[in-house]
Design brief:
The chain is α+β, with helices and mostly antiparallel strands and 150 residues long. Helices cover 49% and strands 23% of the residues. The chain has six helices and six strands; from the N terminus they run αααββαββαββα. A hairpin with a 2-residue loop joins strand 3 and strand 4. The radius of gyration is 16 Å and the shape is globular.
């Protein structure tokens, strides 16, 4: 069931300019998939979907691995610079504040950057907590992350 749902999600985001979880849920339900918001949120993370800025100025979900590397870099930079409000380190944590509703998308993109000493992340609606190995790692992670914002 999960594999079929993931294939359907990839098909839907390639066919439609889906930019919210609610839109994705509606499309899935129209195709017979009875899904919850938490299931779709997990699917987005597992499929490594990120919201990318399109030429029309709107965001839409795309799979990170399906785009060329420089396009991924540009999309990540566009995403971060458009929605990240602040990045701060405190002890061995990095706290990233975003516009409401954007933390999970930023978190997926952030994790795809594979910071060496980042142990894990938790994303809410507008805040991401990243746990690093130590205080020095957290400071470096925050500094490196800020380079993507410009």
């Amino acid at each position: 069931m999960k594999t079929n749902r993931h294939q359907k999600i990839l098909e839907l985001i390639s066919r439609y300019p889906i930019n919210t979880q609610e839109e994705l849920i509606e499309h899935l339900r129209a195709d017979g998939y009875d899904v919850t918001q938490s299931t779709v949120s997990r699917d987005i993370k597992q499929l490594r979907l990120v919201k990318t800025l399109m030429p029309d100025g709107k965001y839409r979900y795309q799979q990170v691995s399906s785009a060329p590397e420089n396009a991924v870099q540009n999309n990540i930079t566009s995403l971060f610079s458009g929605v990240v409000l602040s990045v701060r380190s405190a002890m061995n944590m990095v706290v990233i504040k975003t516009h409401p509703g954007m933390a999970q998308s930023v978190c997926v993109a952030f994790e795809s950057l594979s910071f060496e000493d980042m142990l894990g992340t938790i994303a809410g609606d507008d805040t991401i907590f990243a746990l690093c190995a130590d205080e020095l790692s957290a400071k470096k992670c925050a500094e490196d992350f800020l380079k993507y914002i410009g």
